[in-house]
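note to self: dont lose this again. the chain is below, predicted strucutre after it. 579 aa total, dont forget to put it in the shared folder this time
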Amino acid sequence: MKIERENEEKMYSTFLQFKWMNNHLVVPDDPWRSHRKLQQNARKVIQLTPTANERNLAEYWIKDLQLNAISIIWFWLLLREYNCMAGILFLREPPLARLHLSAYFEESCFWIAHKLALKRSGKSSYSYLFQEYFQIARVIAAQPEKILQDYDPSRSNSVKSVKNWGHTKLVTAILEITGEKTHSDAGLLRRQTKTSLKKALQEEGITEKNLTSYLLAWQSFKDNYTPDTPRRGQPLPWPNVEHRNNIANEYNQQVDKYKQQLIVLIKLSFIYINCLAGALFFLTLQADFKLAPSMTAESINAESIDKLLKFCVKSLRNSNEIQVSELEEFDAIADQEMMYESESGIEGFKNAEIGECLSNAFSSLPKEAQIILRLWHGLGFNQGDVGELFGIERNQIANKIKAWRSSLLRDLIKYLDQPMTAQEINQKSKKMDLWFTDYLREQFVYFLSNTLNNEFNGDVPLLQKCYNKGRFDLKAGANYLKIPETEVSQRLEKLKEHLEYRLTDYVGSQLIAEVDQILYEALSTINLAKTLTIDLVNQRLAEFMTSVVQAKAEFLDEENQDIAKFVEEWLTKDKTGVE
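---
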């Protein structure tokens, strides 16, 4: 699926328009529809600054939007003091700069919605989830000043700096709205309200009389846990033994304090115990000072604190009541906390920039290199397979791949622009390989997911049961459908046969034509090219589907995997393992 605009004018003046047929997303050849005023204004600005690239234009409209915000204040004054009709007209129509930036983020809205829906479509249909995420993304992008308020142009020299920044902020905002944003365990505890934690604990079956111990452990954690060495761009780490001892000491001090207060108040209540007011007073005290049985025993230690806090985390992870206190976001620890809780902050921004660098470097490789790397990284063909396909010796393929990888690695090191040791370069090389494996397999993952959701949507729950968190469990599928395991096995085989047929057809249409052309130019024998291509691809795909059940290893951690492992990984992790 290609969703890309040709030039800067279209980037800032067009919006996506597509339709659904039989619950399937249909993207026309030209899905972009122009907004007349935006098109005219974008054309005028580009003509005035013909050398401006997409970043220059984005930053121009960011400044324009900031100036517009100041102007609004003056128009409000005109409206209030002089009943100025110009003020009314100005406020009724959104500024063009805002619309230009909203149009610019339209691609990001689409791809974010697509990836989130694809990842979570095991529980609901892709179509429904995509529409939901896309609408949420559009609503957020309609106010670009909010997602760009902290934008710093000095962070990157990339031409797509604004888009990458906005993309990261969009993901964060969507996940916060839908309640899917994740933090480290410590970060999750730090950001909770007392009310949300209490509800989560109650959902886990914690009774009223035992709630206090968990809530007090959480409060002691919030009041006392300050990591020793804050590191920007890292998640908030779990407290170590020393920190947990400090939290336990705070917990014990608070319990002792409660006990002393309770003793004093009970004595006071007994003075008035003969009157109704005294009795009611005592009942009120009981409600305010509910000490769990464990809190009246010996002092708690670091190990016990660890168990209490981890149970709080477990309850929050399982709960729909996760909330973030807006007030707590700006308390005394806010600045330090931001150094840790930046999963979608600066690190995400850097990753987006590096991804852009690598994807651009890949696109600049020769067509032959792109196809070979797609087969090797994306589908798991080994060097011998690729050599047979192209009529090249295995050692020549190895040398070619080595040269292409070196070229890509040089581009990455040049982009990072920092001195590195040989060991650091080697680590970057391994990470680059992992990134390319994920990047180049994405088109096949998308195709298989779409095929499953649109043609076998009713079997998704069965697959979730059979491929649960990386384990193949035929019995779970049989129990779910209340049918014999043999029948479940037959249904799965039928499903895999269909996926084999569809994937073979897809690979043929997407790759074979390109390979044919290269082989034709290299060997001047179109028939030989077709024979090599079709026979080999069909053979490898057949092997791939035959061993699908046996392939259990992690896709990114093994070398030269058979194509079967690609599908098994998709079934096990990418699709049915999503919770």
